[in-house]
Amino acid sequence: MKKTASTNTYPLVPMSSPDLTKTEQEVVQAVLETTYLSMGPETTGFEETIRNYTGSRHAIAVNSGTAGLHLCVRAANIKDGDLAITSPFSFVASANVLLFERAVPIFVDVDPLTGNIDPLLVQQAAKDLTAGGATAQKWLPRSGVTKGAKLRALLPVDVFGQPAEMDSIRKTAQEFDLAVIEDSCEALGAEYKGHHAGTLGDFGVFAFYPNKQITTGEGAIIVTDDDEAADFMRALRNQGRSPGDTWLQHTHLGYNYRIDEMSAALGRVQMGRIDEILNKREQVAMWYAERLTEIHGIETPQILASTTRMSWFVYVIRFAPEINRDQAAKMLKERGIPNRPYFIPIHLQPYMVERFGFQEGDFPITEDLGRRGLAIPFSGVMTEDQVEIVCRSIRDVINTIQ
Ligand SMILES: Cc1ncc(COP(=O)(O)O)c(C=O)c1O
User: pTM here?
Assistant: First the structure.
Protein backbone atom coordinates (compact mmCIF):
# COMPACT_ATOMS: atom_id res chain seq x y z
CA MET A 1 0.00 0.00 0.00
CA LYS A 2 1.38 3.38 -0.95
CA LYS A 3 1.45 5.74 2.01
CA THR A 4 2.23 9.39 2.32
CA ALA A 5 3.67 11.31 5.24
CA SER A 6 0.26 12.70 6.08
CA THR A 7 -1.04 9.20 6.91
CA ASN A 8 1.12 9.53 10.01
CA THR A 9 2.67 6.04 9.86
CA TYR A 10 5.28 5.98 7.14
CA PRO A 11 8.64 7.55 8.03
CA LEU A 12 10.01 9.82 5.33
CA VAL A 13 13.49 9.22 6.77
CA PRO A 14 14.45 6.22 8.95
CA MET A 15 15.43 6.83 12.59
CA SER A 16 18.76 5.07 11.97
CA SER A 17 20.32 2.77 9.37
CA PRO A 18 23.44 0.61 9.50
CA ASP A 19 26.22 1.49 7.08
CA LEU A 20 26.93 -1.84 5.34
CA THR A 21 28.72 -2.74 2.14
CA LYS A 22 28.70 -5.72 -0.19
CA THR A 23 32.05 -6.88 1.28
CA GLU A 24 30.45 -6.97 4.71
CA GLN A 25 27.60 -9.11 3.42
CA GLU A 26 30.12 -11.42 1.74
CA VAL A 27 32.22 -12.01 4.86
CA VAL A 28 29.13 -12.97 6.83
CA GLN A 29 28.14 -15.34 4.02
CA ALA A 30 31.66 -16.77 4.01
CA VAL A 31 31.43 -17.63 7.72
CA LEU A 32 28.29 -19.64 6.99
CA GLU A 33 30.35 -21.79 4.67
CA THR A 34 32.77 -22.81 7.47
CA THR A 35 32.32 -25.07 10.48
CA TYR A 36 33.04 -22.22 12.93
CA LEU A 37 29.88 -20.33 13.81
CA SER A 38 31.06 -19.46 17.32
CA MET A 39 34.44 -19.09 19.10
CA GLY A 40 36.46 -19.13 15.90
CA PRO A 41 38.98 -17.01 14.01
CA GLU A 42 36.54 -14.16 13.31
CA THR A 43 36.12 -13.48 17.04
CA THR A 44 39.86 -13.36 17.65
CA GLY A 45 40.32 -11.32 14.45
CA PHE A 46 37.72 -8.77 15.53
CA GLU A 47 39.33 -8.53 18.98
CA GLU A 48 42.70 -7.92 17.34
CA THR A 49 41.36 -5.03 15.23
CA ILE A 50 39.99 -3.36 18.37
CA ARG A 51 43.26 -3.92 20.27
CA ASN A 52 45.19 -2.35 17.44
CA TYR A 53 42.76 0.55 17.13
CA THR A 54 42.56 1.46 20.81
CA GLY A 55 46.04 0.34 21.90
CA SER A 56 44.51 -1.70 24.74
CA ARG A 57 46.31 -4.87 25.85
CA HIS A 58 43.10 -6.90 25.76
CA ALA A 59 39.85 -6.85 23.82
CA ILE A 60 37.12 -9.33 24.71
CA ALA A 61 34.17 -9.62 22.37
CA VAL A 62 30.75 -10.37 23.88
CA ASN A 63 27.17 -10.47 22.66
CA SER A 64 25.95 -7.11 24.01
CA GLY A 65 27.06 -3.93 25.70
CA THR A 66 25.02 -4.95 28.72
CA ALA A 67 26.89 -8.27 28.92
CA GLY A 68 30.22 -6.43 28.57
CA LEU A 69 29.43 -4.00 31.37
CA HIS A 70 28.19 -6.83 33.56
CA LEU A 71 31.50 -8.68 33.13
CA CYS A 72 33.36 -5.48 34.09
CA VAL A 73 31.27 -5.24 37.26
CA ARG A 74 32.21 -8.83 38.10
CA ALA A 75 35.88 -8.23 37.29
CA ALA A 76 35.90 -5.09 39.48
CA ASN A 77 34.65 -7.33 42.30
CA ILE A 78 31.55 -5.20 42.88
CA LYS A 79 29.29 -7.23 45.13
CA ASP A 80 26.05 -7.35 47.05
CA GLY A 81 25.42 -4.02 48.79
CA ASP A 82 28.45 -2.21 47.30
CA LEU A 83 28.06 1.32 45.97
CA ALA A 84 29.13 2.68 42.58
CA ILE A 85 28.78 6.28 41.41
CA THR A 86 27.15 6.58 38.01
CA SER A 87 24.91 8.74 35.84
CA PRO A 88 21.11 8.90 35.87
CA PHE A 89 21.29 10.36 32.33
CA SER A 90 22.11 7.23 30.36
CA PHE A 91 20.67 4.15 28.78
CA VAL A 92 19.38 1.94 31.63
CA ALA A 93 21.95 -0.82 31.14
CA SER A 94 24.76 1.24 32.70
CA ALA A 95 22.95 1.18 36.05
CA ASN A 96 21.26 -2.20 35.61
CA VAL A 97 24.57 -4.07 35.54
CA LEU A 98 25.13 -2.94 39.13
CA LEU A 99 21.71 -4.22 40.11
CA PHE A 100 22.53 -7.60 38.54
CA GLU A 101 25.12 -8.00 41.34
CA ARG A 102 22.85 -6.44 43.99
CA ALA A 103 25.10 -3.38 44.11
CA VAL A 104 23.60 0.10 44.44
CA PRO A 105 23.94 2.86 41.82
CA ILE A 106 24.73 6.19 43.46
CA PHE A 107 23.48 8.69 40.94
CA VAL A 108 24.96 12.16 40.71
CA ASP A 109 23.67 14.83 38.36
CA VAL A 110 25.20 15.78 35.03
CA ASP A 111 26.77 18.68 33.19
CA PRO A 112 23.98 20.62 31.45
CA LEU A 113 26.00 21.12 28.26
CA THR A 114 27.07 17.58 27.49
CA GLY A 115 24.80 15.44 29.67
CA ASN A 116 27.92 13.70 30.99
CA ILE A 117 28.32 13.04 34.71
CA ASP A 118 29.46 16.14 36.63
CA PRO A 119 33.06 15.42 37.76
CA LEU A 120 32.87 17.78 40.75
CA LEU A 121 29.81 16.00 42.06
CA VAL A 122 31.59 12.68 41.54
CA GLN A 123 34.51 13.94 43.60
CA GLN A 124 32.30 15.31 46.38
CA ALA A 125 30.17 12.17 46.50
CA ALA A 126 33.26 9.93 46.64
CA LYS A 127 34.69 12.01 49.47
CA ASP A 128 31.49 12.01 51.51
CA LEU A 129 30.66 8.37 50.90
CA THR A 130 34.17 7.30 51.88
CA ALA A 131 33.98 9.40 55.05
CA GLY A 132 30.64 7.76 55.91
CA GLY A 133 28.24 9.04 58.57
CA ALA A 134 25.85 11.93 58.08
CA THR A 135 27.67 13.51 55.12
CA ALA A 136 27.38 10.25 53.17
CA GLN A 137 23.65 10.10 53.75
CA LYS A 138 22.69 12.83 51.31
CA TRP A 139 24.10 10.86 48.36
CA LEU A 140 22.28 7.65 49.18
CA PRO A 141 18.89 6.69 47.77
CA ARG A 142 15.97 6.71 50.22
CA SER A 143 15.80 2.92 50.36
CA GLY A 144 17.61 -0.20 49.15
CA VAL A 145 20.99 0.53 50.78
CA THR A 146 22.64 -1.72 53.36
CA LYS A 147 24.09 0.00 56.42
CA GLY A 148 27.86 0.50 56.18
CA ALA A 149 27.86 -0.14 52.41
CA LYS A 150 31.22 0.65 50.78
CA LEU A 151 31.92 2.70 47.69
CA ARG A 152 33.83 0.52 45.19
CA ALA A 153 33.68 2.05 41.73
CA LEU A 154 32.91 4.88 39.35
CA LEU A 155 30.92 4.10 36.23
CA PRO A 156 30.93 7.15 33.93
CA VAL A 157 29.15 7.07 30.57
CA ASP A 158 30.39 8.73 27.36
CA VAL A 159 26.96 10.07 26.49
CA PHE A 160 25.96 10.30 22.80
CA GLY A 161 29.59 9.70 21.75
CA GLN A 162 31.24 12.45 23.78
CA PRO A 163 33.78 11.34 26.42
CA ALA A 164 33.10 12.09 30.08
CA GLU A 165 35.56 14.33 32.00
CA MET A 166 37.91 11.42 32.52
CA ASP A 167 40.95 13.25 33.97
CA SER A 168 38.98 14.39 36.96
CA ILE A 169 37.11 11.09 37.26
CA ARG A 170 40.39 9.15 37.23
CA LYS A 171 41.88 11.47 39.84
CA THR A 172 38.91 10.84 42.13
CA ALA A 173 39.26 7.10 41.56
CA GLN A 174 42.94 7.18 42.50
CA GLU A 175 42.31 9.28 45.59
CA PHE A 176 39.63 6.95 46.93
CA ASP A 177 40.95 3.67 45.49
CA LEU A 178 37.99 3.00 43.21
CA ALA A 179 37.71 0.98 40.02
CA VAL A 180 36.65 2.89 36.88
CA ILE A 181 34.35 1.24 34.35
CA GLU A 182 33.98 3.53 31.35
CA ASP A 183 30.70 2.92 29.54
CA SER A 184 31.77 3.81 26.01
CA CYS A 185 28.93 1.84 24.44
CA GLU A 186 27.98 4.99 22.51
CA ALA A 187 31.50 6.23 21.85
CA LEU A 188 33.68 3.94 19.71
CA GLY A 189 36.23 6.22 18.04
CA ALA A 190 35.71 9.21 20.33
CA GLU A 191 38.82 10.81 21.77
CA TYR A 192 39.40 12.68 25.01
CA LYS A 193 42.48 14.93 24.90
CA GLY A 194 43.86 12.73 22.13
CA HIS A 195 43.19 9.41 23.91
CA HIS A 196 40.63 6.83 22.87
CA ALA A 197 37.39 6.82 24.85
CA GLY A 198 37.02 3.44 26.50
CA THR A 199 40.72 3.25 27.40
CA LEU A 200 40.57 5.90 30.10
CA GLY A 201 39.44 3.76 33.02
CA ASP A 202 40.29 0.24 34.19
CA PHE A 203 37.70 -1.19 31.83
CA GLY A 204 35.84 0.17 28.81
CA VAL A 205 32.99 -1.22 26.73
CA PHE A 206 31.95 -0.42 23.14
CA ALA A 207 28.58 -1.65 21.85
CA PHE A 208 27.49 -2.52 18.33
CA TYR A 209 23.69 -2.58 18.14
CA PRO A 210 22.56 -1.55 14.60
CA ASN A 211 22.20 2.15 15.48
CA LYS A 212 25.81 2.31 16.75
CA GLN A 213 28.84 3.64 14.83
CA ILE A 214 29.75 0.14 13.65
CA THR A 215 27.41 -2.79 14.01
CA THR A 216 27.62 -6.51 14.58
CA GLY A 217 23.83 -6.90 14.83
CA GLU A 218 24.13 -7.60 18.54
CA GLY A 219 27.54 -7.40 20.17
CA ALA A 220 30.14 -5.44 22.10
CA ILE A 221 33.81 -5.44 23.08
CA ILE A 222 35.44 -4.91 26.45
CA VAL A 223 38.90 -3.34 26.54
CA THR A 224 41.31 -3.46 29.47
CA ASP A 225 45.03 -3.51 30.24
CA ASP A 226 44.52 -5.80 33.24
CA ASP A 227 45.77 -9.32 32.38
CA GLU A 228 44.12 -11.09 35.29
CA ALA A 229 40.77 -9.38 34.82
CA ALA A 230 40.88 -10.15 31.08
CA ASP A 231 41.38 -13.89 31.76
CA PHE A 232 38.55 -13.80 34.28
CA MET A 233 36.16 -12.04 31.89
CA ARG A 234 37.05 -14.45 29.06
CA ALA A 235 36.17 -17.31 31.39
CA LEU A 236 32.92 -15.69 32.52
CA ARG A 237 31.68 -14.99 28.98
CA ASN A 238 32.17 -18.71 28.23
CA GLN A 239 30.06 -20.22 31.02
CA GLY A 240 32.82 -19.78 33.62
CA ARG A 241 35.30 -22.10 31.88
CA SER A 242 38.90 -21.24 32.80
CA PRO A 243 41.79 -22.21 30.49
CA GLY A 244 42.25 -25.96 30.98
CA ASP A 245 38.60 -26.61 31.86
CA THR A 246 36.86 -29.11 29.60
CA TRP A 247 33.48 -28.27 27.99
CA LEU A 248 31.64 -29.49 31.09
CA GLN A 249 33.98 -28.06 33.73
CA HIS A 250 33.19 -24.60 35.07
CA THR A 251 35.61 -22.99 37.48
CA HIS A 252 33.41 -19.89 37.94
CA LEU A 253 29.76 -18.96 37.89
CA GLY A 254 29.65 -17.74 34.30
CA TYR A 255 27.30 -16.80 31.48
CA ASN A 256 26.84 -17.37 27.80
CA TYR A 257 27.97 -13.93 26.68
CA ARG A 258 29.83 -15.20 23.59
CA ILE A 259 29.57 -13.32 20.30
CA ASP A 260 28.94 -15.48 17.23
CA GLU A 261 31.28 -15.64 14.25
CA MET A 262 28.89 -13.94 11.81
CA SER A 263 28.66 -10.91 14.10
CA ALA A 264 32.40 -10.86 14.73
CA ALA A 265 33.13 -11.01 10.98
CA LEU A 266 30.85 -8.05 10.39
CA GLY A 267 32.58 -6.10 13.14
CA ARG A 268 36.06 -6.96 11.90
CA VAL A 269 35.35 -5.70 8.41
CA GLN A 270 33.46 -2.62 9.61
CA MET A 271 36.54 -1.72 11.67
CA GLY A 272 38.54 -1.70 8.44
CA ARG A 273 36.71 1.46 7.45
CA ILE A 274 36.09 2.99 10.86
CA ASP A 275 37.45 6.39 9.86
CA GLU A 276 35.25 6.54 6.79
CA ILE A 277 32.23 5.55 8.91
CA LEU A 278 32.94 8.16 11.60
CA ASN A 279 33.61 10.87 9.01
CA LYS A 280 30.31 10.20 7.26
CA ARG A 281 28.47 10.51 10.56
CA GLU A 282 30.31 13.73 11.32
CA GLN A 283 29.30 15.15 7.95
CA VAL A 284 25.63 14.42 8.69
CA ALA A 285 25.97 16.09 12.11
CA MET A 286 27.47 19.15 10.38
CA TRP A 287 24.61 19.33 7.88
CA TYR A 288 22.21 19.29 10.82
CA ALA A 289 24.14 21.94 12.77
CA GLU A 290 24.27 24.28 9.75
CA ARG A 291 20.50 24.19 9.41
CA LEU A 292 19.33 23.89 13.01
CA THR A 293 21.40 26.61 14.65
CA GLU A 294 19.30 29.21 12.83
CA ILE A 295 16.03 27.86 14.23
CA HIS A 296 14.98 29.84 17.26
CA GLY A 297 14.03 27.54 20.15
CA ILE A 298 16.35 24.66 19.18
CA GLU A 299 19.71 23.90 20.82
CA THR A 300 22.19 21.72 18.94
CA PRO A 301 24.75 19.42 20.63
CA GLN A 302 27.75 21.09 22.28
CA ILE A 303 31.22 19.66 21.88
CA LEU A 304 33.84 20.42 24.55
CA ALA A 305 37.45 21.33 23.75
CA SER A 306 38.57 18.19 25.62
CA THR A 307 36.63 16.11 23.05
CA THR A 308 39.39 15.96 20.46
CA ARG A 309 37.20 13.63 18.42
CA MET A 310 33.45 13.40 18.73
CA SER A 311 32.06 10.06 17.66
CA TRP A 312 28.49 10.87 16.63
CA PHE A 313 26.11 8.22 17.91
CA VAL A 314 22.72 9.93 17.86
CA TYR A 315 21.78 13.52 17.08
CA VAL A 316 19.89 14.94 20.04
CA ILE A 317 18.41 18.42 19.86
CA ARG A 318 16.96 20.28 22.84
CA PHE A 319 13.90 22.43 22.75
CA ALA A 320 13.75 25.73 24.62
CA PRO A 321 11.85 25.34 27.92
CA GLU A 322 8.81 27.23 26.58
CA ILE A 323 8.32 24.69 23.75
CA ASN A 324 6.46 21.50 24.60
CA ARG A 325 8.85 18.77 23.42
CA ASP A 326 6.21 16.05 23.45
CA GLN A 327 3.86 18.11 21.31
CA ALA A 328 6.71 18.83 18.87
CA ALA A 329 7.64 15.13 18.81
CA LYS A 330 4.07 14.13 17.98
CA MET A 331 3.80 16.72 15.23
CA LEU A 332 7.09 15.57 13.73
CA LYS A 333 5.85 11.98 13.69
CA GLU A 334 2.68 13.13 11.94
CA ARG A 335 4.92 14.68 9.28
CA GLY A 336 6.75 11.35 8.82
CA ILE A 337 9.81 12.22 10.93
CA PRO A 338 10.53 9.55 13.55
CA ASN A 339 12.11 10.71 16.81
CA ARG A 340 12.76 9.60 20.39
CA PRO A 341 12.95 11.40 23.71
CA TYR A 342 16.54 10.92 24.89
CA PHE A 343 16.95 9.83 27.71
CA ILE A 344 14.12 9.13 30.08
CA PRO A 345 16.11 9.49 33.34
CA ILE A 346 17.10 6.16 34.85
CA HIS A 347 16.12 7.09 38.40
CA LEU A 348 12.52 7.69 37.28
CA GLN A 349 12.07 4.29 35.64
CA PRO A 350 9.36 2.46 37.64
CA TYR A 351 11.55 -0.38 38.99
CA MET A 352 14.18 2.13 40.17
CA VAL A 353 11.55 4.23 41.96
CA GLU A 354 10.14 1.10 43.59
CA ARG A 355 13.49 -0.19 44.80
CA PHE A 356 15.33 2.98 45.78
CA GLY A 357 12.54 5.49 46.40
CA PHE A 358 13.75 8.05 43.84
CA GLN A 359 11.50 11.03 43.22
CA GLU A 360 11.10 13.70 40.62
CA GLY A 361 13.40 16.58 41.57
CA ASP A 362 16.24 14.30 42.78
CA PHE A 363 18.44 15.09 39.75
CA PRO A 364 17.11 18.32 38.24
CA ILE A 365 19.59 18.72 35.38
CA THR A 366 19.09 15.16 34.21
CA GLU A 367 15.34 15.64 34.40
CA ASP A 368 15.49 18.92 32.50
CA LEU A 369 17.58 17.34 29.72
CA GLY A 370 15.22 14.37 29.73
CA ARG A 371 12.22 16.68 29.24
CA ARG A 372 13.77 18.79 26.46
CA GLY A 373 15.90 16.33 24.46
CA LEU A 374 14.79 14.68 21.25
CA ALA A 375 16.82 12.35 19.05
CA ILE A 376 16.06 12.94 15.39
CA PRO A 377 16.85 10.64 12.44
CA PHE A 378 20.58 10.01 12.22
CA SER A 379 23.01 7.67 10.49
CA GLY A 380 26.12 7.79 8.36
CA VAL A 381 24.13 6.91 5.26
CA MET A 382 21.74 9.86 5.50
CA THR A 383 21.85 12.20 2.54
CA GLU A 384 21.92 15.98 2.70
CA ASP A 385 18.42 15.94 1.16
CA GLN A 386 17.14 13.78 4.02
CA VAL A 387 18.71 16.13 6.56
CA GLU A 388 16.99 19.01 4.77
CA ILE A 389 13.61 17.21 4.94
CA VAL A 390 13.99 16.67 8.70
CA CYS A 391 15.07 20.27 9.32
CA ARG A 392 12.25 21.67 7.21
CA SER A 393 9.75 19.69 9.30
CA ILE A 394 11.35 20.91 12.55
CA ARG A 395 11.16 24.51 11.34
CA ASP A 396 7.54 24.02 10.35
CA VAL A 397 6.63 22.44 13.71
CA ILE A 398 8.35 25.20 15.70
CA ASN A 399 6.57 27.89 13.66
CA THR A 400 3.23 26.16 14.22
CA ILE A 401 3.74 25.81 17.97
CA GLN A 402 5.13 29.31 18.63
C1 LIG B 1 25.28 4.04 27.31
C2 LIG B 1 24.90 2.64 26.97
N3 LIG B 1 25.25 1.66 27.81
C4 LIG B 1 24.96 0.38 27.57
C5 LIG B 1 24.26 0.01 26.44
C6 LIG B 1 23.89 -1.42 26.26
O7 LIG B 1 24.30 -1.98 25.06
P8 LIG B 1 23.48 -3.21 24.43
O9 LIG B 1 22.19 -2.68 23.92
O10 LIG B 1 24.39 -3.70 23.36
O11 LIG B 1 23.30 -4.22 25.53
C12 LIG B 1 23.88 0.98 25.52
C13 LIG B 1 23.14 0.62 24.31
O14 LIG B 1 22.38 1.28 23.71
C15 LIG B 1 24.18 2.34 25.80
O16 LIG B 1 23.79 3.31 24.97
Answer: 0.96
